From TrEMBL:
This is CHAD domain-containing protein. SMART domains: CHAD. It comes from Limnospira platensis NIES-46. It comes from the Bacteria. Pfam families: CHAD.
């Protein structure tokens, strides 16, 4: 987003309007194509826009007085409806293009049955999306948000300069991320190195790497924790993305980390969801009915896990966490950029 340097636009209230307008526009630009249901990418982009809109509404909550129809809960319900259809699209695409060609001839008929069932489920999910987008609740959401943007209503802090309050806006979401229990997922014990390292004189790190077998067990019993961490990283990413023009390269690096965390944990979550769907449809142990596919998903999870452990180690480093905070606390002045 390009900064307008006029005093009026550089207030907290006006940046709240800019953020909400940006993401609402993204949502509306894909709505018609989603209802035509010809390109899955349109659904994906509308879902992303809805999620980003929700992050903006949540992040700017201290300064905006939005109509009831534009509440976080209402936006979330619509996003989840779009998400159900998007998840099925992702599963069908992965099964058809990524997994099906690698299966044995004996396994392919079983997967054919799964694909037939998923196509039927997709038809039902699309009807639900269409009904949601045509429902008065969604129509009220769009209209009320547009009316608000035409005549925004703020709280008393709207005139505060954006540069002065950016840290206060960003740090609550970042702190919630850094305090998430998901960072300790898969770690039985932390050790503090006594010798100085390149990045820290006292770095807290995982004691050892877990095996693939243990990872599968942990994901079965505690996978929701990682999924929750991923959602918080996504909220931080979407909020930070609004303010890239106010910061420098270090900020951009942390923003890229948020994207990497979201995508890495998303790859793990996608295979977990797909496996659960396969079990529900086949009503059998897929290790027996689809052994090749089961092994591939397990391997993909473990490969994503290896990437995740690097990010996990990075954000368990107290120096990195402190630097993240300090980066947000010091948005450079115009003269410094």
């Amino acid at each position: 987003m390009t900064i307008d340097t006029s005093p009026q636009t550089n207030t907290l209230g006006n940046w709240a309007s800019l953020g909400i307008q940006k993401y609402l526009t993204k949502v509306l630009s894909h709505e018609a194509a989603v209802l035509q249901d010809q390109d899955p990418e349109e659904l994906h982009q509308m879902r992303v826009g809805m999620r980003r809109l929700r992050s903006a509404v949540t992040g700017f909550a201290p300064v905006v007085d939005l109509p009831k129809a534009a509440s976080d809960d209402n936006i979330g319900k619509i996003a989840r409806c779009l998400g159900e259809l998007r998840d099925i699209d992702v599963m069908i695409e992965a099964l058809n293009n990524q997994y099906y060609p690698t299966l044995t001839e004996a396994e392919k008929p079983t997967l054919d049955k799964v694909l037939i069932r998923l196509v039927k489920q997709r038809g039902k999910a699309f009807k639900k999306v269409r009904a949601t987008l045509e429902h008065k609740k969604y129509q009220h959401l769009k209209q009320d948000l547009q009316n608000w943007l035409d005549f925004p209503v703020y709280t008393a802090i709207e005139k505060l300069p954006i540069l002065e309050v950016l840290p206060d806006l960003l740090l609550p979401q970042v702190s919630e991320l850094l305090l998430h229990q998901g960072w300790l997922f898969g770690i039985d014990k932390l050790e503090t190195e006594s010798e100085p390292t390149e990045n820290s004189s006292q770095e807290t790190t995982p004691k050892k790497t877990i095996t693939k077998k243990k990872l599968e067990k942990l994901l079965t019993t505690q996978g929701d924790v990682l999924h929750s961490l991923r959602k918080q990283a996504k909220r931080v990413r979407y909020l930070m993305a609004l303010f890239t023009d106010f910061y420098g390269s270090t900020y951009q690096a942390y923003l890229q980390d948020m994207k990497d965390i979201q995508e890495c944990l998303g790859d793990i979550q996608d295979t977990m969801v797909l496996e659960a769907v396969l079990v529900a449809i086949l009503r059998s142990d897929i290790k027996k009915s689809l052994p090749t596919l089961s092994n591939q998903m397990s391997q993909k999870r473990y490969e994503s896990w290896q990437i995740w452990t690097q990010l996990q180690r990075r954000y368990l480093n107290p120096v990195v966490r402190q630097d993240f905070h300090l980066t947000l606390l010091r948005p450079p002045l115009d003269s410094d950029r």
